[in-house]
Write a structure and sequence with these properties.
The chain has 217 residues and is an alpha/beta fold. It has a single domain, classed as Rossmann fold (3-Layer(aba) Sandwich). The protein has eight helices and seven strands, in the order E-H-E-H-H-E-H-E-E-H-E-H-H-E-H. Strands 2-5-1-6-7 form a five-stranded parallel β-sheet, with helices on both faces. A two-stranded antiparallel sheet has the order 3-4. The termini are close together.
Length: 217
Amino acid sequence: MQGDKHFTPVTVGIMGGSASGKTTFASALAEQLSDFSPVVLNQDSYFRDWSEYSAAERERVITANHPDAVLWNALITDIKKLRSRNTIAVPTPGTRGAQRGDEKASVQPSDVVIVEGHLIFWSEALRDLMDIKLFLDVDAHERVLRRMLRDVAQRGGDLEWAINWYRRDVLPNFPVYTEPCKQYADLVIPFQDENPVALHMLIAGIRARIQEGASSL
């Protein structure tokens, strides 16, 4: 089944607010489906580099929580390629990763494509490429605490800067561009703590979809 050129890969979208556990959930999902060698794409890898702005202007307009932050055409194109069983190259030109000079790599197609990010359901064109759409639901206070721990304790960031950025970029954009996208989810998964029941049911569903796709060839 792996590598079948006619079977369209099952594409799973995982969305939720900042620090809701998207990466953790995507990793757990990929691990449990390791026999299919899943591809995991993080929306953050498609953040634009804002290089068309001067340094002063960039400080004023840069965002990570507004749809303007994402190179949607590049992300959508790459997912279409993977769904057509074609290889993609990362990082994509125009992204922050490309600007940093991250090492280029080829990503091979797979029977399972997992896309995670806090804005991915905002794009209708991207939603239309997803077979299963998940929204991780976590209390706002818990998400803030997780984010501060991640940005400061784990990444060595400055607490004052992290708080100011949260106030400037996350607070005004989350209720406009992330939270309303819950309506597009096929499943809303509570993820205050680990949710092994939801994970187990989802894995069973994905395996069933793959089996159905293969048997219909």
